[in-house]
Amino acid sequence: MASLPPLKPGPGSPAATPPRRRLWPWFLAGFLIVFVGMSLTVNAYYMHPSGRAVVRTQLWDYYLVQLPRLFQAHNLGPATGDSAVGTMLLQHLACSAGGGFAAMGLAWGVRRLKNGTPRP
User: Fold this and answer.
1) How would you class 63 by CB atoms within 10 Å of its CB: exposed for 0-12, middle for 13-18, buried for 19 or more?
2) Cα R_g (the chain), whole angstroms
3) I need a surface site. Which of 14, 30, 33, 111 has the fewest CB within 10 A?
4) What is the mean pLDDT of the chain?
5) CA distance 97 to 81
6) pLDDT tens digits, one per residue of 68-81
7) Could you count the other beta carbons within 10 Å of the beta carbon of residue 15?
């Protein structure tokens, strides 16, 4: 008795669809590249606590100086612009998220071209 050839999976069966790869590692990689890159290259300015000078520093150093100052008691005056560190941090996170989404979109597009998925 001859054996029958194995059955091919139908178009809707789980065996017919390739395993779905996750894109979040690509988002994380893009996010970290932009976050670290901006931390090392972007300059930030803040007023010295004495109020007599403006200091230019890299973004990572700006966070090290300004974030602890948010939680310290200080007098009111020209050097008390503490909301700038929060705004800077939100902008930094938004740019990093944009880099993460760009990397994720690039990985998705390459995967789509590689698999030959037709356009909807």
Assistant:
1) middle
2) 26
3) 14
4) 82
5) 26
6) 887 777 666 655 65
7) 9
- Tell me how far apart the alpha carbons of residues 105 and 96 are, in angstroms, rounded to a whole number: 14
Give yes or no for a contact between 104 and 32, defined as CB atoms under 8 angstroms apart.
no
Q: Dihedral of CA 28/34/39/44: which sign?
A: negative
The residue whose two tokens read 């740019």 is 95
